[in-house]
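Sat 14:20. Reprocessing the chain from the morning session after the first attempt stalled halfway. Input below, unchanged.
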Amino acid sequence: MIASRIFAVLPLAALALAGGATNQCNTGSASCCDSTQSVTSAQQNGLLGFLGAVDVGSLTGLVGSNCSPLSVVGTGSGCQANQEPVCCTGNHFNGLVNVGCSPINLNA
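Finished this time. Tokens:
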């Protein structure tokens, strides 16, 4: 009886875990960034000067710098200890500046 209940719940638990890992970054690409900061801070530090034609006033979320693609979401690995895993909607200059970023949890 207990075994049948366990087997009935296992597929649902596996489905929930799989769904959480794939839905974390559904509007952009997952990246590991050396640093992230608010749009306001990035403007003050001159980081957004590289973007040229991008309307900085319309940017939301965080700005990531020195980002590299993250391909293993949901495994608890992929970023270095000093990097922050984020989901970003815009990648500029091959990861030098990523915009529209939000933190993601790699341990989900």
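The longest helix spans residues 2-22.
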